[in-house]
Amino acid sequence: DTAAANALDDYEEGTWTPAIASGASDLTTSSYVAQQGHYTKVGRLVHVIMTLGFVVNDNGTGPLLITGLPYTQKNDSGSRITGHVDIYNYDSPSNIIQIGIEGVANSTSLTTLGSRDGTTWYNIQSSELADGGTYYIKFTGSYVT
Hints:
Blueprint: E1 11-16, E2 19-22, E3 28-42, E4 45-58, E5 64-67, E6 82-88, E7 96-103, E8 109-116, E9 122-123, E10 134-144
Antiparallel strand pairs: 1-3, 2-5, 3-4, 4-10, 5-8, 6-10, 7-8, 8-9
């Protein structure tokens, strides 16, 4: 179809730099092993891919966050980012059956979640990461700006 209404709007590709943070007190890393992010934006839809590797120096407290998305997410629960995530070396509590990521509305951050059998979502806590431990988070997902 060659109609103007169906033409691609605002196509862009680029890179972004993911970082790890805590939602309450400072989580500090002694180093980043990998900090790579790529995105494709078409109109209001942004697709991101990232690999984040880090060594924890002080695990802090509060929800484990990933910051640095290339665009602010829409302030709408139906438009926040979701996708596929892998977390290497995370020893989840026994009642967690699945790990996920959800966008924080009207921000450039992601929160890490655990799904529990028959109950509510659980915010993965930065205090669950071992000081001195090396972790990798790989993620791919899409969201609306």
